[in-house]
Sequence to fold (277 residues):
Amino acid sequence: MTGADMALPAQDERTLPAVVLRDIDTRPLEEAVGELQMLIEQHGHVIVVCSPAAPTAVQRRLHTLRSLLESDRIAVFRPDLPPLGLAVLARQLRQLASCDLSPGVLASAGRLLVHYLHSGALLGSVARLDRVPVNLKQHAKSWMPGSQFAVLAHPQPQLVRLGPEATLDGPEFGTWMLVAKGQLQSDWVGATLAPAWNVQGLRETPLPAASPGWWGTGKIIEFCTYLPDLSVLYQLVTSVRRGTCHWCGIDVIGDRCVFCSAVPPAPEGAPAVSRRT
Fold:
């Protein structure tokens, strides 16, 4: 992880602790290289979970470190999720890291598990929200005193003004919900949304530092539903067909290797696709 506030408490006794690459963009380069090299020597492979909304300097530094180490054992995973959803997904990967999964399958699992998350927020304003489409009428109503908006960012963007009939499309399977409260006062998420989504359990956590910037306001209650059980996560991952990367030989799920970025060779006669790093 690139931020300590994104390292959620362990879900169970098997959940591995997160390693936080603190101040990765401001620390001396040689110090950051040494830390990452040590992690590779200790664990063999490193999966770095980073938000696409992270400062450009952070993303640039991660790719610089990977290039300097000339290593295909570092995967930089940047799922397009709000901060709380990203933290939840990172914890699920920490849960799975205790299982007998190869590094390539574990890193690829993030792409699969992201489809089982519903991540959104209750906002006091959408005037500065640019992560989810906001029409002109909704934008105008956001300036009205007391207005609140229920927003789903993933898996499908959705935005409704809060009212008696307001609802969001939720998961069609049993989940738990994690809630992080900012400066907004409301019980709608826990009292209305969670029952409507048939949430089986609800927990609270501090609001990630990146959340106000991501949602465009500090008047926020962020939420994310997820599958909490390690056995279910493991079954999902192991039920998917695996392949072998033709470039580095690691086991993967899907078409693109998360470590070396290679894709399967093009069929004979088809245009070639170059390897990207």
Remarks:
- The radius of gyration is 20 Å.
- Residues 6 and 115 are 20 Å apart (CA to CA).
